[in-house]
Amino acid sequence: MSAPRVAVVGSVNMDLLTATERLPGPGETILGSAFAATPGGKGANQAIAAARAGGAVTFIGAVGSDVFALDLRQALVDAEVDTRYLREVDGPSGIAAITVDAAGENSIVVVPGANSTVVDLTPAELAAVADADVLLCQLEIPLGTVVAAAAHAAAHGTVVMVNPSPAQPLPTELVELIDVLLVNQTEAAQLGAEVIGAVSHVVTTLGSSGADYAGSDGTTLHAGSPAVEVVDTTGAGDAFAGALSVSWRGGPGTAVPFACTAGALATTRRGASTSSPTRTEIEAAIPG
C-alpha cells in the first residue's frame, strides 16, 4: 500500500526555547538554565511529524528573508517533506518564544511574521491539496486561507482535518467543511458544543490520559497512551496531529491509538519538530 498523501497548509517558525526551573509569574524575571533555537511552527511541526510517521507530505507556507529561513527550510527537507511550495517573502520569518519548566510544562508566544503573508493559494498549491488524501491545517496562518484550502480539498474528496490552534471562533463555512476536528480540552470548551457537534469526527486529546473519539453516528472510543518519562510537552500535540493524519485511512480505531503513542513519545525529547517519533518507534510502543 502506498504511503498516505498529506498536504499541510500552515505555519513555520523558529522556536526560541528557554529552559527554566519554573515558569515566571507576571512581571517576574527568573534565570534560565538553557537556550536553543530550533525549527518549529505548528504547520511545519505537523508536516515533519506526519513524514516521520510514514506519510508522503507536501508543505505549503512561507518563510522570510532573514537568517532563520534557510534552517527552517532545511528542517523540512531533512524530514523528506516536499518543500516546492514553501515560499520566501521579504521580512522576518515567524518565531515562537517558548519557556519550558522542569516538569515539562510550557508557555508560548508566537509572532507570525511571514506566515501572515499566506493569503492566496496558487493553482499549483491548490492542485497539491486536491491530490492529497488528507489536508491538515492549523490556525497560525490567516483564517481565510484555511477556509479556501478546506473548500478546495472538500470539492476534490480530500479529507479535511483541522487542529484549531491557537483557538479562535470558527466561521460556519469552515465548520461545515471539516471532516476531522482535532482539539484539546481547552480548545473544545472554547469552541463550544454547537461547533463540536457539527463535525463528523472529533478527536479530543487528554494529555497523558490519551484521547477520546466521537463520531456523528454515535460511535465513541477512548485510547490510552503508553507510560513515559516526560521531558518536554512542547511537541506532543503536533506529533499527535501528524500521526493522526497519516493513519486516518485506517479508521479512528487504528488512528487514535497510533496518534496517542506518537504524542506520548514526543514528550520524551526536547523540542517541537525534533521530538516527533518515527513510524517504527510508534508501532513498537503502541499499548497492547
Automatic annotation (TrEMBL):
Pathway: Carbohydrate metabolism; D-ribose degradation; D-ribose 5-phosphate from beta-D-ribopyranose: step 2/2. Substrate binds at N13, M14, D15, G41, K42, G43, A44, N45, E140, D238. Residues 269-288 are annotated as: Disordered. InterPro entries: Carboh/pur_kinase_PfkB_CS, PfkB_dom, Ribo/fructo_kinase, Ribokinase, Ribokinase-like. Its EC number is 2.7.1.15. HAMAP family: Ribokinase. This is Ribokinase. It comes from Rhodococcus koreensis. The gene is rbsK.
